[in-house]
Amino acid sequence: MTDRYAVIGNPIEQSKSPLIHTAFAQVTGQDIDYTRVLGPLGGFAQTVDAFRAEGGKGMNVTAPFKLDAFAYATDLAPSAQMAGAVNAMKFEGDKVYAENFDGVGLVRDVVHNLGCPLNGKRVLILGAGGATRGALLPLLAEQPAEVVIANRTVAKARELAALAQQHQSGAVPVHGVGYEDVQGAFDVVLNATSASLIAQLPPLSVTAFSSGCLAYDLTYGKGLTPFLRLAQEAGVTHLVDGVGMLVEQAAEAFAWWRGVRPETAAVIAQITVPLV
Ligand code: NDP
Fold first, then answer.
1. Exactly one of 66, 90, 121, 222 is catalytic; which is it?
2. What pLDDT score does 74 carry?
3. What's the predicted TM-score (pTM) here?
4. Ligand 1 pocket member 187 (CB < 6 A)
5. What residues of the chain score a pLDDT lower than 70?
6. Mean per-residue pLDDT of the chain
7. Within 10 Å of residue 71's Cβ, how many Cβ atoms?
């Protein structure tokens, strides 16, 4: 019998999740049907209730419902607790198991796909929203030398740095700062702000990029964003957008639901938009 899954968001037409999961199902031989669900604003719980009542097995969650899903879940994984947000749910009877695979997807893309180990590296992450919250624990598990979070609203960066320090007992130093207080050059600079969605640039100095730096914009499908352009001007040649992260978080959800991890390289290649 075909098992049903879906992604819920508003808007939802832009979501690549059906394409990605359908490709995964083909390569792994899994019998699933994966669709888009437009959730009415203020109507998340009723929409998910209806999907479950029709036999739905699981859902991915995208904007603006990641916090609604957090409230809806009965069992939150540590990744979802740290992120304060949920991007994947699994339904079993009355139980709603909830995860946040964004961070693990990001780290898998950086370390495994891009061949850039984070161990011992200085890592700068721009932004202190949901994506940064989700990324912190998986990043820290790689034992970088230091993580600096820079944000426009400095209090949010500081708060998140303190939370991350608490979670890993201070093993890796984590600092929250404003852009003007970013000191020195970094091996990896991750843009987890939403500035690229509207072609804006966080006020980052070019001196933040080391010569062999990886510059990674979590926003995907926007070509050479102002952030990636800044990195290029600083001499960085390793410029990447977040399409690999998107596919890797999907692969984590697929493995969690189906017990089999799909190959991701072909799907990443299929949906990559060249950085020109
Ligand atoms: P949030 O809305 O939770 O956070 C947005 C962050 O961006 C805040 O820290 C905000 O700063 C900062 N920001 C927004 N505009 C600017 C600006 N003009 N200059 C400087 N900082 C700015 O968003 P998310 O964390 O959920 O998402 C961030 C990005 O990551 C999005 O572009 C999203 O598409 C991408 N993403 C990609 C994924 C993938 O799979 N590749 C998965 C998840 C997210 P302040 O706090 O001061 O307002």
1. 66
2. 98
3. 0.96
4. no
5. none
6. 96
7. 11
Mind listing the pLDDT tens digit for each residue in 125-157? Answer: 999 998 999 999 999 999 999 999 999 999 999
CA distance 50 to 32: 18
- Does residue 162 come out as left (phi exceeding 0), alpha (psi in the -120 to 50 range) or beta? alpha
Q: Which residues, including other chains, have CB under 8 Å from residue 268's CB and lie 6 or more apart?
A: 113, 243, 244, 247
Q: DSSP secondary-structure letter at 113?
A: I
- pLDDT for res 3: 98
Our answer on whether the CB atom of 246 is closer than 6 Å to any ligand 1 atom is yes
Yes or no: say if 88 and 98 are a contact pair by the CB < 8 Å rule: yes
Helix H or strand E encompassing 123: strand 122-126
φ, ψ for residue 131, nearest 5 deg: -65, -40
Q: Which residues of 194-217 are buried (b: 16+ CB within 10 A; e: fewer)?
A: ebbeeeebbebeeebbbeebbbbb
**pLDDT at site 167:** 85
Supply the pLDDT for residue 21.
98
Spell out the domains of the chain, with CATH numbers in brackets: 3-100 (3.40.50.10860), 103-243 (3.40.50.720)
Looking at residue 4, what is its pLDDT? 98
Atom of ligand 1 nearest to the CA of 133: 25
Q: Which atom of ligand 1 is nearest to the CA of 128?
A: 9
Q: Which of 152, 200, 247 to mutate to test the pocket of ligand 1 (most atoms within 8 A of CB)?
A: 152
